[in-house]
TrEMBL record, chains A, B:
Entry-linked PANTHER family: AMINOPEPTIDASE, AMINOPEPTIDASE YPDF
Organismal lineage: Bacteria, Candidatus Daviesiibacteriota
Family per record: Belongs to the peptidase M24B family.
Top-level taxon in the UniProt lineage: Bacteria
Molecular function in Gene Ontology: hydrolase activity; metal ion binding
Source organism: Candidatus Daviesbacteria bacterium RIFCSPHIGHO2_01_FULL_40_11
Record's protein name: Xaa-Pro dipeptidase
Record domain Creatinase N-terminal: where: 5-127
Domain Peptidase M24: start-end pairs: 139-349
SUPFAM superfamilies the record matches: Creatinase/aminopeptidase, Creatinase/prolidase N-terminal domain
Entry keyword set: Hydrolase, Metal-binding
């Protein structure tokens, strides 16, 4: 099955009139090789695929493991005896156009390549990852399940006097206890902090925010789980104390906006129509604006898998079409500076009949 | 003091006839701002320095913290209202030559820059980091101290039947217990595995290697600590069971080679001579070859600080000169494929009188 992925790259090369591609991003390398031990921080490997070859380039540290686990890729061991340049020299004559990952390859690496290859262009291997297999979807579901349990757990832990950082710590410990890790640093925002979509979790303390002490305080929780290399992502907004009518209306508007996006996809699917990612974004976005709230300052959603953010993008500028097997978030939000924000995010998979939700934490307005 | 670092960048710009530099590597950003919260995996900030400006470019997540902690840099908040392009447009006329970090900036980022700046070249901000302040040296010493304690601890834990991975786990837990983390994934290599300089720690079990069960088994431990953002790094090779005479000779040769490199630096310093990093490498390297062993398949040493590997490089091709305040490793090794390897690594700081060792774990041939 992993071997099929290499074939798909070759088909893509053919389609895009590119003679070979040098894959450098660690997640694309993981996707094509199934090998998960390479560092995310340092460049430890490349995959180099052409019409009649498919190499994995790495060093002696990984030789044994690669030979055992990735037999369908030809191992090129670089080291003090052989350099990657030797490999490029061997193939450069056959390669007119070389594909690279422009958003990953460094300028220094590009310089070296340009000594061997005259024509270099961007080649988006990551596109292949947007459509998930059943096995991949099931891994994402497992991560979502742990996320749901973590949400259930954290609701019981949240109490007067707790800080944002403490909530994060509790979440991280719970998730670790399930044999998983967080898929990104959790965002926990209390009160006005929630008006910053990507608030940096800090030392803010939960407690009555207004002088009367009777108003509800927003608690925005955005976190995900990484289990068996696959990620989940979910946002819930709950209230500490009774929400004001303003807060309630914000909450209901965001929830409605999300529902409208989901309904749109499902109706279109039933009608046999193609669904553009940008259209889904527009449905949710327009609804929030129609209720006199500011426009969502981020995309409506993003694909997820080996990485928290991958194809497809559900944003106004997206050119992508939703396809069966895509897994993505739908996460509208309203953010009022100085007041607070509400975001609700779920993961969904696009299937034959329409969308199926993978995160199952409850969304009824919750007061702690 | 951090402000002085910005001044040094400006002096460097002047010297290298570069009008501005866009710093993108997270460790250089940390070095120049003192701000340690940016992700190592995602691009969350840049520092943009010219003759009469010094910006830190980041998003709303970090606005508050940056304003509070880094007042001497002008905050440019990029987001859905303002893009980095606006900032480039404002300054592009004054900038003929823009410096970038070629080994960090991506091809996609370079493309955007090239729309604003005609002449772009490599600018090695990381060079500034090679000479450490007293405060930085003291932080590295603290990391070394924890590393020494971890080595003492692990010697007691190593026993028949333990796996390489278990040793790593014990090391990591011990270091975490000291409020620190490992500075890189520890390398633990048993027996023949030690002949691979950067062996990938695996499931190999400690136990009598030869059929007679009377020969010593090599245990190579290469690990470091990160404490208060600064790293340590150390390698020790010990024996499980009585070493063979071949193993003993290898061990003594490596130890001698390290000592000869240290002596060389110290003698030259006393004589008031400048010491080239490449010469130090040569002393250790030549000694090992003179004893009829294969050449060291890696550099003799590397600078260390915020990162495990930074300037200076002690390698045959290095053009660097040792200067007061530099902290680096000296780590000769002998690796015999199919037999095993020995490496001994210490961190040293180059001071007025010569080298002072920062790692203090014992190096007498140790049998467990």
């Amino acid at each position: 099955m992993l071997k099929d992925r290499i074939e798909k790259v070759k088909q893509m090369l053919n389609k895009e009139k590119t003679d070979a591609v040098l894959v450098s991003s660690v997640f694309n390398i993981t996707y094509l090789s199934g090998f998960t031990n390479f560092s995310e921080k340092e460049r430890e490997a490349y995959i180099f695929i052409g019409k009649d070859f498919a190499y994995i380039i790495t060093d002696e540290r990984y030789t044994e493991a690669i030979k055992r686990q990735v037999p369908y890729l030809t191992l090129f061991e670089r080291g003090h005896k052989k350099s990657t340049k030797d490999l490029f020299k061997k193939h450069q004559k056959k390669i007119k156009w070389l594909g690279i990952e422009e958003d990953n390859l460094t300028v220094a690496e590009h310089k070296i390549l340009s000594r061997h290859f005259k024509k270099i262009k961007h080649f988006d291997v990551g596109n292949l990852r947007s459509i998930k297999t059943k096995e991949e979807i099931s891994k994402i579901e497992k991560a979502c399940k742990i996320g749901d349990l973590a949400f259930e757990f954290i609701l019981k832990k949240i109490e007067n006097g707790i800080s944002e950082k403490q909530v994060v710590e509790e979440l991280e410990n719970f998730i670790r206890g399930k044999g998983a890790v967080v898929s990104f640093p959790p965002i926990v925002a209390f009160g006005k902090n929630s008006s910053i979509p990507h608030h940096q979790t800090g030392d803010s303390i939960l407690g009555p925010e207004s002088s009367s002490g009777r108003e509800g305080q927003i608690i925005l929780l955005d976190f995900g789980v990484k289990y068996d290399d696959y990620c989940s992502d979910m946002t819930r907004t709950v209230f500490f104390g009774k929400p004001t009518s303003q807060q309630k209306t914000m909450y209901e508007t965001v929830l409605q906006s999300q529902q409208k996006a989901v309904d749109f996809v499902n109706s279109a699917t039933v009608a046999g129509k193609e669904v553009k990612a940008a259209e889904v974004d527009k449905v949710a976005r327009d609804y929030i604006i129609s209720r006199k709230y500011p426009a969502i300052p981020h995309s409506l959603g993003h694909g997820i898998g080996l990485e928290v953010h991958e194809h497809p993008s559900l944003s106004p500028k997206s050119k992508e079409i939703l396809k069966e097997g895509m897994v993505f978030s739908i996460e509208p939000g309203i953010y009022l500076p100085g007041i607070g924000g509400v975001r609700i995010e779920d993961l969904l998979v696009f299937e034959k009949g329409g969308l199926r939700q993978l995160t199952h934490s409850q969304k009824k307005l919750t007061v702690i």
